[in-house]
Amino acid sequence: MSARPNFTLRPHEELADLLQVITDYAEERIRMEPPLDRTRTRADLDAALGSTITASGVGGAEAMRIFTDELAPACLSTDHPRFLSFIPCAPSDASVMFDLVVGASSVYAGSWLEGAGAVWAENQALRWIADLVGMPDEAGGVFVPGGTIGNLSALVAARSAARDGAPVAVRPWRVAATEGAHSSIASACEVMDAELVGVAADDAGRLTGEALRAALEAHGPETFFAVVATAGTTNFGIVDDLASVARVCRENGLWFHVDGAYGGAGLVAPSVRALYDGIEHCDSFIVDPHKWLFAPFDCCALLYRQPALARAAHTQRAGYLDVLTEATDWNPTDYSVGLTRRARGLPFWFSLVVNGTDAYAAAVEHTLEVARFAAAEIARRDHLELVRERDLSVVVFRRLGWTPADYQAWSDRLLADEVAFVVPTTHRGETLARFAIVNPLTTEDDIRLILDTTM
Ligand SMILES: Cc1ncc(COP(=O)(O)O)c(C=O)c1O
């Protein structure tokens, strides 16, 4: 590679100096045990920093000082082993390092013409996931920013396919899912002006074929264009009864979308693989490697059984795009909402290549092991109670005698002391505590330490 001309915004600054500051920071962050850090108010940041953007610029060293001393400590480290709220992000070292390379490489990964090498590699990573799901050879898709866009893109493709196949006067507008489905499904329906029909879950919180059939019959199956099953709900990690749901979808010719944004990663773990039986029948599937597959933000793998249907729904057409759209190449941008895209699947691909897929299975199994330990430890303590049996690596529990304010005070104290980030959740009006364990560096001692603070 030949050196490029020295290009900085401030001519008297050396590219080499800034490069050193940046790479030193990145190296230290990658090597360190990250601090949990804490959140700051806007007023506090305003007071500390004022306006950072000035007419003449402050130079790279000073800009990095602002980030290092003020901004970075005001961002929680989602890869801290005791960051157990929402769904954390615990990227592998290899994926984080390669994210730097992607950032430095100015790759446009929307089209094969411009980003063939990157798209080829991303497609290998997508194929690995498709094989875990059991999708056919023709399956394919794209890495999109997150589960929200993945779900929306899949549902847009489903609606387009349903409309194409429906009699002229019929425009199917309904989607079926349980209340456990992620909020992004309701949001997608809102964006699409579609109606989300709630299906009753069984006692284990799962969508079943039987309940689905009843809901379809009540509303008229021909009014639906998709069914969304969840493989690992956000609040509890519940995997729907995918086999029976798939059967009912097939009976009714309905698009079967599986949202595995969080739980799809469990496909790699032999100990829980049976929970996903039936997933191989899905028409579309998402999993976020930035959740439980050790990739940095933002990275959602979106796969279609018949990519041509998605392409028909998503391809943007314009004279300036003809050179791309009229080619037969695989253009990732044709498979989701959005046009320009970074090669966000590359850090994930790189880490798979470096570490091998066995390491992924072992890492997911390890987090499941720690979740098993957490559940046992909760059951062992008289003042704690598991809310339901765990499917995957989310553990939800109640602290007997606590009010919602007690849960919040406990959570606030854990964060203020930089011990842990464990926000309360609610379920059917009850406030509860919840761990989402996706970080292979989270240990049994971490869990014990947090549970000890509930006394
Ligand atoms: C099951 C499920 N689906 C979708 C999403 C949305 O994903 P994202 O936050 O990447 O948009 C989440 C996020 O937690 C999720 O758990």
Would you mind describing this structure in some detail?
This protein has 455 residues and is of the alpha/beta class. The chain has 3 domains: 15-75, no CATH class; 99-355, Type I PLP-dependent aspartate aminotransferase-like (Major domain) (Aspartate Aminotransferase, domain 2, 3-Layer(aba) Sandwich); 357-452, Alpha-Beta Complex (Aspartate Aminotransferase, domain 1), CATH 3.90.1150. The chain has helices at residues 15-31, 42-49, 60-71, 93-105, 112-133, 147-165, 183-192, 209-219, 242-252, 289-292, 307-314, 322-325, 346-355, 357-380, 404-416, 444-452, and strands spanning 140-144, 174-178, 195-199, 224-230, 255-259, 284-287, 300-304, 384-386, 394-399, 425-427, 430-436. The chain has a 7-stranded mixed beta sheet with strand order 1-7-6-5-4-2-3, sandwiched between helices. Strands 8-9-11-10 form a 4-stranded antiparallel beta sheet, covered by helices on one side. A hairpin with a 2-residue loop joins strand 10 and strand 11. The protein starts with 14 loop residues before the first helix and ends with a helix. The mean pLDDT is 96. It binds pyridoxal-5'-phosphate. The site of pyridoxal-5'-phosphate has 14 residues, from helix 6.
Radius of gyration: 23 Å
User: What's the structural domain tally?
Assistant: 3
Structural class comes to alpha/beta
| Major sheet description | 7 strands, mixed
Helix count equals 16
Identify the CATH class of the largest domain. Alpha Beta
Mean pLDDT: 96
| CATH fold label of the largest domain | Aspartate Aminotransferase, domain 2
What is the CATH homology-level superfamily of the largest domain? Type I PLP-dependent aspartate aminotransferase-like (Major domain)
